[in-house]
Amino acid sequence: MPTTCALCRRTVPVERLDDPGAVQTHHLRPERRETSPTVELCRPCHDQIHALFTNAELRESFDTADALRTADRLADYLDWIRGTDTLRVATRTSDHVRRRRD
Ligand SMILES: [Zn+2]
Ligand SMILES: [Zn+2]
Q1: Which residues surround ligand 1, an ion (CB under 5 A)?
Q2: Which ligand is in closest contact with the Cα of 88?
Q3: Mind listing the pLDDT tens digit for each residue in 65-82?
Q4: Hey, which of 25, 50, 60, 76 has its CA 20 to 30 A from 36?
């Protein structure tokens, strides 16, 4: 079964699922894994979300696929990724997220 990414809505074809990280499960409420709903995301989207949002932001404000899909911070990324078929991108963690990790 091909898998559709809940964020960019690209379909990852069966033959590319041989790459075990191509599609990843995202917990919509990080650090609440036991009770968190999950969505399936392609690797670039999953990387991008965690590069741009802190776990607290995800948990409090972006805990649905809809909220993520319409987030201003992701708009440029989504415009771009939807025009590609790449499943591997170099993601740079934003200063905003990096600061919270220190
Ligand atoms: Zn995606
Ligand atoms: Zn995640």
Answers
A1: 5, 7-8, 42, 45
A2: 1
A3: 999 999 999 999 999 999
A4: 76
**Separation between Cα atoms, residue 81 and residue 85, nearest integer Å:** 7
> Could you give the CA distance from residue 15 to residue 66 in angstroms, rounded to a whole number?
28
Closest ligand, as measured to the CA of 54: 2
Q: Determine the distance separating the centroid of ligand 2 and the alpha carbon of 46, expressed in angstroms.
A: 6
Nearest ligand, CA of residue 29? 2
Torsions phi, psi of 2, nearest 5? -65, 155
Is pTM beyond 0.70? Reply is yes
Using only the alpha carbons of the chain, give its radius of gyration.
13
pLDDT per residue as tens digits for the range 16-27: 988 889 999 999
Residues paired with 27 in a beta bridge: 38
- List the domain boundaries for the chain: 3-101
